[in-house]
């Protein structure tokens, strides 16, 4: 283990708080928040001084993020949540943050003064760009964890018929990909969850030339873990509290279920599971399809509070299902916390159920290993991290573009649920723990801190540097 050091996590759009408000409910509050929180806590438990740095918001709609500092109970001695203002008081989506990151870096430097941390670990493209700005002025080394990269998202949207100009206005791909290039080039270490992420995502032509170091040196493959205090197969008081409600909905029989827990995002391809389920209804007549979507209890009523993109996804699901099946074979559950989600997983695991995730592409796939840790058998996309996670046969891999493949996978998973559940649980317990992730980070940080020569960033104009994208789009046309 390295000597105790001061590590700062940079997450401009993290919006962390002790109650995990809006976690997975909002498009900006996805898996990277779980990743950062759990890893930061593991490093703090190991004795390091850790700060999670994010944006301060003074907005009546977002009261949880207005304090300058917060803590997570249990690690308050070594871990702080620090919030710094930038871009005004109101909540801003991640696409709106780019012009304000220089201000964010200024606020960070003002706070630390001469007591700079030993190491920055930057998450997502906005965190990476902030780290490069800070390294330029302080020489403080940093790591970059992209979680997902803009190039892959851009490709999929263009393949779906999207117009580049419209996509850039909406998603700010010019800024995001330019920031990713800066992050990749000047990071002292890049953390990836799988070999596939390293060898495929970072090899995309839009990042050509950004990495000028040997991959074996620049990259560290470090998969995330599961919070075993929450996601496990041991029932607790919460399980007994929610059981009567679930029994009322699903009956006391031991009928199996297909569990989906995901944001309402097109790339998650929930509709693929719904369509495959309906196509195979004769074979799945006694099986329940359970959609665990935070904030959605009565979908035709609750849809009004969703964003336009989320409404589009939910409307397609509702139109496909029809009115007759909702409440009979298809159910919506509003699961409001990770603790409740884990208890729900255990409830259905006792019935020999499966967890389904058929994203068109999944950079890693934390949700399936959380479900596996609670006893569900995984049926997951073959595209991305899950193919590496379950390469030992402990999960079923499906082609998300093929209803035939999804349907076959669902039926195979239900038929072999008990075996797969045991195999997947063993896989998680031996390979995917946050303590192991923390150990990997510590080793990489030690390696960086022991290296004296570092390439310092030069100024990079992410607002006018899009020639790489222009050249790439020309090559595709």
Q: What does this entry look like structurally?
A:
- This protein has 477 residues and is α/β, with parallel strands linked by helices.
- It folds into 2 domains: 6-225 and 436-476, Glycogen Phosphorylase B (Rossmann fold, 3-Layer(aba) Sandwich); 237-431, Rossmann fold.
- Helix content is 43%, strand content 13%.
- The chain is built from 19 helices and 14 strands.
- Strand 5 (119-123), helix 3 and strand 6 form a beta-alpha-beta unit.
- Helix 9 (237-250) crosses helix 13.
Summarize the structure.
With 477 residues, the protein is an alpha/beta fold.
Query: What is the CATH topology descriptor of the largest domain?
Result: Rossmann fold
Q: What is the CATH C level class of the largest domain, in words?
A: Alpha Beta
* Percent strand: 5-15%
Please state the second-level CATH architecture of the largest domain: 3-Layer(aba) Sandwich
Radius of gyration: 22 Å
Distance between the termini: 51 Å
How would you name the CATH homologous superfamily of the largest domain? Glycogen Phosphorylase B
Spans where pLDDT lies below 50 across 5 or more residues? none
* Strand-pairing-aware structural class: alpha/beta
Q: Tell me the helix content.
A: 40-55%
Please tell me the total number of domains.
2
Q: Largest sheet, order of strands side by side? A: 3-4-2-1-5-6-7-8
Number-wise, the strands total 14
Identify the overall geometry.
Answer: globular
Average pLDDT score: 91
């Amino acid at each position: 283990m390295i000597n105790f050091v001061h590590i700062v996590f940079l997450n401009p759009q993290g919006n962390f708080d002790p109650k995990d408000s809006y976690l997975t409910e909002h498009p900006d509050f996805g898996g990277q928040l779980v990743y950062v929180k759990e890893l930061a806590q593991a490093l703090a438990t190991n004795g390091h001084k850790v700060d999670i740095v994010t944006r301060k918001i003074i907005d009546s709609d977002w009261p949880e993020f207005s304090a300058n500092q917060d803590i997570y109970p249990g690690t308050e001695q070594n871990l702080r949540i620090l919030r710094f203002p930038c871009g005004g008081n109101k909540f801003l989506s991640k696409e709106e943050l780019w012009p304000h990151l220089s201000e964010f870096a200024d606020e960070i430097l003002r706070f630390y003064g001469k007591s700079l941390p030993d190491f920055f670990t930057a998450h997502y493209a906005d965190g990476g760009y902030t780290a490069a700005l800070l390294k330029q002025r302080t020489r403080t080394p940093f790591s970059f964890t992209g979680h997902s990269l803009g190039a892959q998202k851009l490709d999929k949207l263009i393949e779906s018929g999207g117009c580049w100009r419209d996509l850039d206005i909406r998603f700010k791909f010019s800024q995001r990909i330019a920031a990713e290039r800066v992050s990749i080039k000047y990071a002292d270490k890049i953390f990836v969850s799988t070999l596939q992420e390293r060898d495929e995502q970072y090899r995309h032509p839009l990042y050509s030339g950004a990495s000028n170091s040997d991959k074996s040196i620049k990259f560290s493959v470090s998969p995330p873990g599961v919070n075993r205090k929450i996601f496990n197969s041991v029932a607790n008081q919460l399980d007994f509290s929610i059981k009567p409600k679930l029994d009322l909905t699903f009956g006391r029989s031991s009928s199996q279920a297909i569990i989906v827990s995901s944001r309402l995002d097109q790339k998650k391809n929930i509709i693929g599971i719904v369509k495959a389920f309906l196509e195979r209804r004769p074979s799945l007549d006694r099986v329940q399809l359970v959609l665990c979507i935070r904030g959605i209890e009565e979908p035709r009523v609750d849809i009004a509070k969703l964003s336009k993109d989320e409404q589009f996804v939910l409307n397609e699901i509702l139109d496909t299902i029809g009115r007759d099946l909702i409440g009979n074979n298809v159910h919506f559950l509003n699961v409001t916390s990770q603790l409740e989600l884990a208890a729900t997983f255990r409830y259905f695991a006792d019935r020999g159920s499966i967890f389904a995730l058929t994203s068109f592409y999944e950079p890693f796939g934390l949700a399936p290993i959380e479900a596996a840790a609670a006893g569900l058998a995984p049926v997951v996309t073959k595209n991305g991290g899950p193919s590496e996670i379950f390469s030992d046969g402990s999960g079923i891999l499906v082609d998300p573009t093929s209803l035939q493949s999804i349907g076959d996978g669902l039926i195979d998973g239900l038929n072999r649920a008990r075996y797969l559940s045991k195999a997947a649980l063993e896989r998680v317990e031996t390979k995917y723990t946050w303590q192991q992730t923390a150990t990997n980070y510590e080793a990489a940080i030690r390696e960086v801190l022991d290296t004296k020569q570092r390439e310092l960033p030069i100024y990079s104009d992410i607002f006018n540097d899009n020639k790489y994208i222009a050249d790439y789009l020309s090559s595709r046309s």
